[in-house]
Amino acid sequence: MWQSHEFNHGPKESIIPQHSITTIMILEALIAMSWFVICDAWWIAALTIAIPLTVMLFFSKTFRSSFFAWFFVYIIGPIFQPRTIAPRRKAFQILKDSIADRDKKVPLEVLEIGVAEGPNLQFYPENCNLTVLDKNKFFESYYAQNAKKFPHISYQRTVIQPAENMSDIADSSLDVVISTYLHCSCDDSLAVLKEVRRVLKPGGKYVFLEHVCYPENEFGLSIQQFINPIWFLFFNGCTLDRNTASKIKRAGFSEVICDKYISPEFMMYLVRHQIIGVATK
């Protein structure tokens, strides 16, 4: 069963005056053009003054992974992480609601895939046995340092493997699998979802938060497609224009509940459209 909802931040009004609609459209157009100029400048910089870095990112996967871990923690994190608190909090509220009836005395067996440096740790409920997995080994030291700040979580182990082949994780061993902003950089989302279903216990929950493509009739999709090749290199395989919701829908879960989230933040324009939800094995 597939359920979909949509929500935005900010107040909702039943009737919007025509002049307000016109103003909103003008603002949206200005924001889109601003981001087109930013992306154009990024292309020019990547192919001129930053071309040595671009070449290294293109030819060396090891360098790209190492650079991305540093770039994510020290550059991207301070800019973007504060702007993802609201959707992350929403995802973990969905988790808490979905397990509200379980015996809280029994530890919750959780796997987070694509954990990076651990930006979700602050949202975990009490009494969790947490295993984390990431394909990028260069995040491990950053995660270990960050994890010390959250002693309410019982850390089990760190697994360095791609989510498409989680061979170190036993079948039907987990109550919950969590991923946030993971499928954008997976080589094969359907293989990841197959693995998620394999490691979940019957009735287990897969909680997801992902940025996705703009609707086909919006200019933002063209901007995503324009910047994708450079974005892919600098963000270690991240692709902006994926339709992850449709893949989760057809992955074989017994139920999928999905909310659409639209970020109001200017800095989040390229990843403005997001999905938050829970799938049940």
UniProtKB/TrEMBL annotation:
SUPFAM superfamilies: S-adenosyl-L-methionine-dependent methyltransferases
Regions that span the bilayer: 21-51, 63-80
Naturally occurring in which organism (per UniProt): Larinioides sclopetarius
Membrane among keywords: yes
Alphabetized UniProt keyword annotations: Membrane, Transmembrane, Transmembrane helix
Protein name: Methyltransferase type 11 domain-containing protein
Domain Methyltransferase type: 111-208
Entry GO MF terms: S-adenosylmethionine-dependent methyltransferase activity
Organism superkingdom: Eukaryota
